[in-house]
Amino acid sequence: MISDEFKALFDRAPDAESFTPGRVNLIGEHVDYNGGRVLPTALSLGVDLAIAPRDDCLVRIHSDKFEGLVERNLSEPASDHWSDYIIGTVQLARAEGFAPNGLDIAASTTLPFGAGISSSAAVTVGVLKALRALDGSGHTDTDLAVLARRVENDYIGMPCGIMDQMAVAIARPGQALSLDTDSLAFDLVDLPETHHMAVIHSGVFRQLNEGRYKIRKEECDEVKAFIGRTDICRMSDAELERCRALPEPIFRRARHCVTEHRRTVAAADALAAKRMQRFGALMNQSHISMRDDFEMSVPAVDALVADAQALGATGARLTGGGFGGCIVACVQAEHLEEWRDALLARHPDAFSVA
Ligand code: GLA
Question: Which of 65, 208, 230, 309 is the most buried (most CB within 10 A)?
Answer without folding.
Answer: 208
